[in-house]
TrEMBL record:
Keywords: ATP-binding, Cell membrane, Ion transport, Iron, Iron transport, Membrane, Nucleotide-binding, Transport. This is AAA family ATPase. SMART domains: AAA. It is a peripheral membrane protein. It comes from the Bacteria. Residues 2-254 form the ABC transporter domain. It is found in: Cell membrane.
Amino acid sequence: MIHLKSVAKRNKQSNHEYPFNLPFIQQFKEMHFRYPVTILVGENGTGKSTFLEALATNIGSILIGGENLENDPSLTPARKLGNELKLTWTIKTKKGFFFRANDFINFTNRLAAIKEESKQKLKEIRERDPNSLEVLPYASTLHDLNHFYGEGLEVRSHGESFLDLFQARFQPNGLYLLDEPEAPLSPLKQLTLMSMINEMVEENGQFIIATHSPILMALPNAEIFVIEDDVLQRKSYGDVEHVKLTRDFLSSPERFLRHLN
């Protein structure tokens, strides 16, 4: 399902403030989404993450933990860019989320704090009055946390808890914007994430993913866009520089390593 069909930048007077001064943003005109998965590739600093943030603010996405983006001051520059984007929809979905790798740690810590607070409140209320109905909301919170996250994301390895969180939060008919989701994942766990993404695509999910990972770039049902020479270009998998460089390195690492000395 293609929920978001296209994004275009409105033709307004040039703005020389960040992020409008990024060469890619200056050159950008429009982008069409033709496949359930869109991969956005670019070197550090090209603006791909900022572009994804701007999309998220325009869409009104929530963070993976349910927080509203309007409360995040770090997104102020991206929000200004998002206001200059015009989005075209097939059917606008309210499901999905915007994910940044650093948000995962914050969410994990917040869940652990909520769980500990609920346990403490239950203990205090039961000591005061074993039959009190005041325990119900706290018991319900613990039940939900255990249902979705088991013992807790904090007791699992970073990669495992990361995938647990995705598994709990993915829903059919969602639009998911993922910024470098490979960050905490081993190659094997990246394959697991790919499988989860494919399952959601089969349930009318749409994904826009900014990544450096040649593994994620190989996702089926994906179209790859590369920011190259400050312009967004469609590329086949084998023509992406990240893929070619990784392939060349793995086939002959000594050719690259001899230059380190």
